[in-house]
Design a protein that fits this description.
Keywords: Membrane, Transmembrane, Transmembrane helix. It is a single chain. The chain is elongated and about 50 Å long. Helices cover 77% and strands 0% of the residues. The protein has one domain. The two termini are 23 Å apart. Helix 1 packs antiparallel against helix 2. It is mainly alpha-helical. The protein has three helices and no strands.
Length: 64
């Protein structure tokens, strides 16, 4: 399997898992505030997983 394809699949799974885990979250009984916080959490997960996957799957050009 291509490394880029694997990275994209892992990224999608991590975002889906984050959305599932934060599904029942309610902040101050406000729908819009809860969705904004969920979006920020998903962006944080996206950045962290991107950083980790880039560290694990380094390009051969970068490693030399």
């Amino acid at each position: 399997m291509n490394k880029e394809t694997l990275k994209n699949i892992l990224m999608i799974f991590s975002i889906c898992a984050t959305l599932r885990e934060t599904d029942g979250m309610r902040i101050a009984h406000s729908w819009i505030l809860s969705e904004i916080v969920r979006f920020l959490i998903c962006m944080a997960v996206f950045l962290i997983v991107t950083f980790l996957l880039d560290a694990v799957f380094q390009n051969k050009k970068e490693s030399h």
